[in-house]
Amino acid sequence: LQFRIRRPKNFPPGPTPVLFFGNLLQLDRTNPLKDFDKFAQRYGSIYGLFIGSQPAVVLTGQKMIRQALITQAAEFAGRSDNMMISHVTNSKGVIMANYGESWREHRCFALTTLRNFGLGKRSMEQRILKEVKYICSHLEESAGKSIDLEHLYHQAASNIIASIIFGSRFTYKDEYFQTLITNIEKLTKIVIGQWAMLYEIAPVLRIFRLPFCKAFHYFAGIENHILKVVNEHKKSHVTGEPRDLIDCYLEEMEKRADQRSTFDDSQLVTLLFDLFAAGTETTSNTLRTLTLYLMTHTHIQGKECGGRLMKSLVIVNMSHLRTEMPYVQAVIHEGQRVADIVPLSMFHTATTNAQLWGYNIPKGTIIIPYLSSALREESQWKFPHEFNPQNFLNDKGEFVKPDAFMPFSAGSRVCLGENLARMELFLILLTVLRRFRLVWPEDAGEPDFKLIYGGTQSVKPYRLTVQLRTPGQTCKSVY
Ligand code: HEM
User: Fold this and answer.
1) How far does the centroid of ligand 1 lie from the alpha carbon of residue 298, in Å?
2) Residue spans of the chain under pLDDT 50
3) Ligand 1: does its nearest atom lie under 6 Å from the Cβ of 341?
4) Which residue among 239, 250, 290, 391 is least crowded, i.e. fewest CB within 10 A of its CB?
5) Are residues 199 and 115 part of one domain?
6) From the CA of 82, how far away is ligand 1's center (Å)?
């Protein structure tokens, strides 16, 4: 009975499901995006699917996504409590927390804290620039050699978020750091993989020691590390002098001690995990894809980025981006558009029995915002299928952001790290391009821009050659 599939009344049309699997067998497991496109051509910009016996609705194109996530935000801002990742994290923290008081308070706390780190010596910008120094030193050591930037970008993005939340960074060679990052990667792979799918569609299997059990094991390891850091903070933190997000949280817990509050140690641990996990691969994969495009579109790398305008800047900072660099803004946004990092966003759920586009969407239905479809929607972009910063420039050369640009999703669940991520992309890319010329090696063949599908997408690993723009100049002389 559990596997019987019943299409709700007036549910959006879609392909016919089969017992137990629903429509899963009609989707290419290695990359379902082409199948999603085919269904959209056949059924329109909203259609219904079944993940096992669980009903789901796919939203295609910017208009439909905006309607559900912005105009009807409260109705479609839930998260599923039937997914493996919600069980691993106990639906705590922010990412997998259901739409309710605890999610709202933690999201608001995290956003305010990140915003308050906007100014002063410990500001986000300073923390990012500090990490950029390490990137530069590493690249200087690699000058003239062929290298793969994957680990460097990954560790740099991890360190930036670590310095904001834990107040400390790791050295790139630190084995413990490597293990932590690797465990997060392994955990992410499991929770979006096939075993997780079985876990979700056949709950009876959960009692067996199958490979999905490892996800709980990895999470426990990460949790232990985070708890250790939290306990150290409890001993050393001084009220009124927060060093990082943990200190801010501990102060908030003290303030709310007498009230009924959703703030406690286990929520803190999951919140820290969320920020650390969400803030690493997303940013580093964007950097890696954008670097590949810049290297192989040399006319762009030679323009403002690292060229004419860059040379006149002594220190790169965020105010330059807003005031003086529409072209650079356009390049970075175009990089994010083609990098298409989170193609299916995070799945939402309907928080109530809702209506969308005239269809009934019962409470609990999974909502899949197909973000890639908006990022390459032919009616929305001047050049939907090529890398071209003109997509973000008007006739006067001013920066404009089309509504279909939504790599961070939209509405009340929109990415909480959007500002941080944009700051990182700008400061890391520009400082690196100002100091180094990144060259596609002559013997490397044709660059491959194809994205490898995953929870976060990226181009295949590649190697590049690093050249110093001004030989002899070191990072220290730049800062
Ligand atoms: C280029 C980089 C990034 C991209 C493309 C990106 C994209 C996204 C997307 C598509 C979502 C799902 C939104 C939804 O459910 O509709 C999301 C959620 C989230 N992101 Fe990001 N993200 C990036 C960087 C970051 C960073 C650096 C952080 C760390 C501060 C972060 C923290 C989060 C959190 C906590 C959520 C969950 C929000 C919620 O459920 O309320 N992200 N992100």
Assistant:
1) 30
2) 304-309, 311-314, 474-479
3) yes
4) 239
5) yes
6) 21
Question: Is the CB of 156 inside a 6 Å radius of any atom of ligand 1?
Answer: no
Phi, psi of 347 (to 5 degrees): -65, 140
Q: Which range of residues forms the domain containing residue 112?
A: 91-122+168-278
Number of other CB atoms surrounding residue 326 within 10 Å: 20
Q: How many separate domains does the chain show?
A: 3
Closest by Cα among 193, 388, 215, 403 to 303: 388
Judge if ipTM > 0.90.
Answer: yes
Q: Which of 252, 278, 304 is the last residue of a domain?
A: 278
Q: Classify residue 103 by its DSSP letter.
A: H
For the segment 296-334, what is each residue's pLDDT rounded down to a tens digit?
Answer: 887 776 654 444 445 444 455 666 666 668 888 999 999
Q: What is the pLDDT of residue 443?
A: 87
Strands 464-468 and 436-439: antiparallel
Ligand 1 centre to CA of 472 (Å) is: 39
Binding annotation for heme:
415
Q: Look at residue 318 in the predicted model and tell me its pLDDT.
A: 62
Residue 368 CB less than 6 A away from ligand 1 = no
- At 478 the pLDDT is 38
- Radius of gyration for the chain, computed over Cα atoms and rounded to the nearest angstrom: 23
Query: How many CB atoms sit inside 10 A of residue 475's CB?
Result: 17
pLDDT in tens, 375-418: 999 999 999 999 999 999 999 989 999 999 999 999 999 999 99
Tell me which residue has tokens 């009924």.
260
What pTM did the predictor assign? 0.93
245 C-beta closer than 6 A to ligand 1:
no
Q: Is 64 in the pocket of ligand 1 (CB under 6 A)?
A: no
- CA 367 distance to own-chain centroid: 18
Express each pLDDT in 240-278 by its tens digit. 899 999 999 999 999 988 788 899 999 999 999 999 999
Answer yes or no: is 136 within a domain: no
Alpha carbon of 99 to ligand 1 centroid (Å): 16
Q: Of all protein residues, whose CA lies closest to atom 43 belonging to ligand 1?
A: 415
427 close to ligand 1 (CB < 6 Angstrom): no
Q: Is residue 401 part of a domain?
A: yes
Instruction: Find the largest Cα–Cα distance for the chain.
Output: 72
Q: Where are the alpha helices (DSSP H) in 142-212?
A: 150-165, 175-191, 194-201
The Cα–Cα gap between 137 and 294 comes to 21
Best residue among 79, 116, 282 to mutate for probing ligand 1's pocket (most ligand atoms within 8 Å of CB) is 282
